[in-house]
Amino acid sequence: MKLAVCAKVVPDGTVHKRLDPATFRLDRSGESALNPTDVNAVEEALRLKEAQGGEVTIVSLGPAKAMDALRKALAMGVDRAILVSDDAAAGSDLIATSAVLAAVLERESADLILFGQASNDADGAVLWAAVADRLRRPLVSQVAALRLAGDAVGGKRQTEFGYDVIAAPLPAVVAVSDAINEPRYPSLKGIMGAKSKPAETLALADLELEGAAGDEGSRTKVLAVSPPAPRGDQLRLEDDGSAAERVVAYLAEAKLI
Amino acid sequence: MTALVFLEHHDGALQKGGLGVLAKAASLGLDTAGVVLGSNVSEIAATATGTVHVCDDPALESPLPQPRVDALAALVEQTGADAVLFAASVLAADVAAGLAARLGAGLNWDLTDVRLEGGELVGVRPALGDTVVADVAWKGSPRLGLIRSGAFDAPEESGGATVQTFSASFQDFSTAARMVEQAHEEASGPSIEDADVIVAGGRGLGKPDNFALCEALAKELGGAVGATRAVVDAGWYPYSAQVGQTGKSVSPKLYIACGISGAIQHKVGMQNSGTIVAVNKDPNAPIFDFADVAVIGDVEQVLPKLTELVRARKA
Predict the structure, then answer these.
(1) Any chain A CB within 8 A of the CB of B1?
(2) How far B189 CA lies from chain A's nearest CA (Å)?
(3) Does B86 touch chain A (CB under 8 A)?
(4) Residue B214, phi then psi, degrees to nearest 5
């Protein structure tokens, strides 16, 4: 079966994330890495491939150097990488990003498209639903356990109210939660092999999407950025046996108890 | 400006998050109406206030997002709504994003506030682990917004809504996914989203049994018990109590964090709480960077004393 994983390349966990004060866009100049929860989607795709046979393609939109991070997925066992990279796509919002990914995925016509839980820089957890709508495919999100049965996919997922089991016919879009698996580490052989795997970079023009991404294709904008409101003074107590009393006095004073 | 507010319902009741957003939108002076989508939901819809558009259809029986996109798209076309607002949830996020793609509309998420500025809608969106706050807006109409859980209080009184029904046709792909099973936990005690007080536990409790210390204190305070991702994953406490990036965002008046280090994934779910009390043995725990009361001490010592003192005050 043909599997596709949509992934985002984000600033590495060790990088202090900041917004560019001129563009209000995330500064992506430092070290970058695959978004951690997208690695769970990669892992799930690899497990399905190992069980069913097939091919896994990782698809991303990002700066040209994002290909370095996508190679980690190739090292884990993904077969091909497709990166859409175009200066005109920088700053794409949800609908712009979903238009770009949908165009690539349309071309790939995968049986199953996987997403990770949420990017750790934008915290959206919304992209899959937009992509599924554009591709006119059924969607199952927040999947913590996935099962393929014939030409259908079943997912158990967490909601605010407990657990749902949802089934959908293939081709489908599934977003997995990071509780679904424990991703593997690339082997040395995998890392060496990744260098010769197909890695394609596309521009918006290759997808006939000029004007559909970046500022021009986006329908949201940032007006201003400010620091969060500071919290008040802190009451700091080393517990010498009396901390509980002082906490209760504080809460009583604040009329919280 | 006209606004539609998606009102999610569960077990025959409208969720408070949506009612809070409905009240907020109306308070801004927006021409506001609620939307309830489901099967046999007219009575539920009437428990809201003002005008509520209702699409009653068997295709909307299960809480699945895609048929709701069809219904909302039809309603936006019919009403010409300028904005569609949602209280964030697993379902609402998928509905909002699907609707954005369908209508080519902008979606801003994780909003903690909305206001009108010169007649234009502006959202407030903390970003990058809430280290910055962005004012965000939309290009074109409709403006779609997902409001962070707990941002707006539901009104004390609700009911008497005028129900207006509408119909929608459903796409084949929208109705292809189906709910096979719903195993919903019976909530014991108040849910963490509605609680004024939350006593939450993390790895620093040391062992699962020590959640009893949190439960005892929560009981005395009339509050609910929360938990971090780490302890939920470890099976110490149920997922329904999980606070944080992959759980619920809460904003109680009082949040007592017990043995919680305060990793960013947890912080984003609780830092809008009114007063934060943190108890942790580690003086360098990040939670002390944003706690109002920092107690450097052992939860096994501090929590029972707190419980006892609160109980004594009530007596």
Answers:
(1) no
(2) 14
(3) no
(4) -65, -45
